[in-house]
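Slide 14.
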Amino acid sequence: MEMSDFDRGLLVGVLVGEGSFGGDGRQPSVTVRMHTRHEALFRKLCDVVPGARLYGPYEHSGRRYFQWIVRGQALRRLVGVLDDHLTPSIDAHAAGRYQRMRRTYARALTPRQAPDAADPLPVTIREVRRGDASNLADLVTQLGYPATTGEMLERLDAITAYPQTLTLVAEADGLAVGFIGLRREPMYGSGPPAMRIAALAVDAEHRRRGVAQALVQWAETWAQDQGCASVVLTSANHRAGAHAFYRRAGYRGSGVRFAKDLIAPTEQGAAAAPVS
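Slide 15: predicted structure.
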């Protein structure tokens, strides 16, 4: 990863003082959490490390903060810089925490050749398992709704207990690289029920390789088996790429979605949308 001496020094300095090096058991991540007064610094870090994401602002116990996260391909590109410059001679404690992450996630941090976007990714579509919670938490985090493994476990338990729902994952190399959440709904305006796509996410490193298409095709087949006459969904205004995907799949825009929060996001544990 190319960066100027100033940017490299800035990054290493912030990581020494505020960096957290860890992961969820499968995927490593580097995280910085600081007060919202440091927003300009956070945005500079997003420029310094392409692929880093900034989430928030959040409010907890009277404190407002942002959370900056680097994972996946962005982190694999960054490790060369950290290997060379986040060393014991700079700060032994920070270097030790970084090296523990390197050892724990050695395989995940090995640089990979970027796949051809036109090369379909072979996946197995199956029902979700509780062991997928870590991957699903990462997938919804990538959508802009940060979640922990524990939070996702609670949500999966509640969703799977709900009647006429189905969650499917797309598995590749033993990991859930995408998922779709479905719910069968009776309709007031027509006789047959509809199938609602409540959630659809694909890991950033595997997009445009047919994963979402495979999930939607399975969803449509299940909807027909359940006697549904249509498939419906909502998609946020800013997700232009998702809109284009659905149009290519034969879906059409047919209305406007309105929403009103009845509980403050901080009270219900919902995360704010990402700002980068």
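Speaker note: The first strand starts at residue 19 and ends at 23.
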